[in-house]
């Protein structure tokens, strides 16, 4: 379930990334905000909008980072596999995965400052948290079954493996004795 208030309260924790080929093929389809030519269009809009606030030191740092991304874009022949990811919360495990694939782009707070039209579309631009524990029912997590039969079978299998090892060892020793005679 998407919690818009929580996302807005922690908007500086959310980050999206510019991911180039070949790393872009490792990004899940559900985690892609833009792909291909729309990425370049968004980049151009970003550069235009932030260039008005270039006197602010934080924006100057962003501007320099974005120029670096622009230089990388200039080196490409095609934009087919270039993506901008959705926003990931820094406390999620998946955040570390995406950080190794791409260049940091925006934090959500700054993005919404320059693109307020996305304020009502947060669910579309934020990645969903994968919470695997919610996929299991309570009965799957408790052990109410009587597994005594399985335990006895496991013990028998362990005994059989030990017997096989001992037999193999005895066979090897007897072959060694007969060859040395």
Polypeptide structure, described:
This protein has helices spanning 4-9, 37-50, 57-74, 93-99, 108-114, 122-125, 138-141, 148-180; strands spanning 14-19, 32-35, 83-85, 88-89, 103-107. By secondary structure, the chain is an alpha+beta fold. It has two domains: 4-135, no CATH class; 147-181. The longest helix is centred in the last third of the chain and has 33 residues, at 148-180. Helix 2 (37-50) runs antiparallel to helix 3 (57-74). The chain starts with a helix and ends with a helix. The radius of gyration is 28 Å and the shape is elongated. Strands 1, 2, 3, 4 and 5 form a five-stranded antiparallel sheet that branches. It has eight helices and five strands, in the order H-E-E-H-H-E-E-H-E-H-H-H-H.
List the helices and strands and how they pair.
Layout: H1 4-9, E1 14-19, E2 32-35, H2 37-50, H3 57-74, E3 83-85, E4 88-89, H4 93-99, E5 103-107, H5 108-114, H6 122-125, H7 138-141, H8 148-180
Antiparallel strand pairs: 1-3, 1-4, 1-5, 2-3
Helix pairs in contact: 2-3
């Amino acid at each position: 379930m998407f919690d818009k208030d929580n996302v807005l309260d922690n908007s500086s924790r959310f980050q999206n990334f510019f991911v180039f080929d070949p790393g872009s093929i490792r990004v899940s389809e559900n985690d892609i905000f833009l792909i291909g030519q729309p990425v370049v269009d968004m980049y151009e809009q970003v550069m235009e909008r932030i260039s008005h606030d270039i006197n602010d030191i934080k924006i100057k740092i962003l501007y320099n980072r974005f120029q670096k991304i622009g230089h990388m874009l200039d080196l490409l022949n095609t934009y087919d596999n270039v993506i901008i990811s959705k926003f990931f919360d820094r406390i999620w495990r998946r955040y570390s995965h995406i950080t190794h694939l791409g260049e940091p782009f925006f934090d959500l707070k700054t993005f919404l400052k320059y693109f307020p039209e996305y304020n009502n579309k947060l669910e579309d631009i934020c990645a969903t948290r994968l919470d695997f524990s919610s996929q299991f029912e309570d009965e799957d997590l408790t052990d109410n079954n009587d597994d005594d039969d399985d335990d006895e079978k496991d013990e028998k299998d362990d005994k059989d493996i030990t017997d096989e090892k001992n037999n193999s060892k005895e066979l090897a020793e007897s072959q060694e004795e007969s060859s040395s005679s």
